[in-house]
Amino acid sequence: MPESNTLSGALPPTELTQTAELTRPVRPKSIYHMPVASGSVPSFTSTTSATNGKPKDYDMAEGDERGLSHTDSRYARMNRALFLFAATAAVSSINYGWIIGSINIPALVIEECAGGPMTWTNGFPSCIPMSSTLWGLVVGLTPLGAWAGSLLSGIAADRFGRKRMLMYNNAFFVAGALLACLTTSIVQLAAGRFVSGIGCGIAANVVSTYCSEMSTVRSRGFLGGFQQLMILVGVFLSQVVSIGLSKAPLWRALFSISAAIAIVQTLLLLLIPESPKFLTSAGRLDEARASLQRIRGGMDISLELDDLLTTVESGRQNEHIPQPTMWQVLTGKTEIDLRHLVFCALFLMLSQQWSGAKGVMFYSTEILSDRFHLTADEVKEIPTIAQLLTLGIGGIGAVAVIIGMNILDKVGRRSVLIVSSFATSICAALIVVGSALDIGPMVATSMYLFNLVFQAGAGFIPYLCASEMLPYYALGSISGLATSINCLTLFVVSFIFPILDKSLKAYLFVPFIVTNFITCLFGVFLMPEAKGKSVLEVVDEYKGPIRFVAGPFVRRKTPSSPITFSPPKVLD
Question: DSSP 3-state assignment of 561?
Answer without folding.
Answer: coil
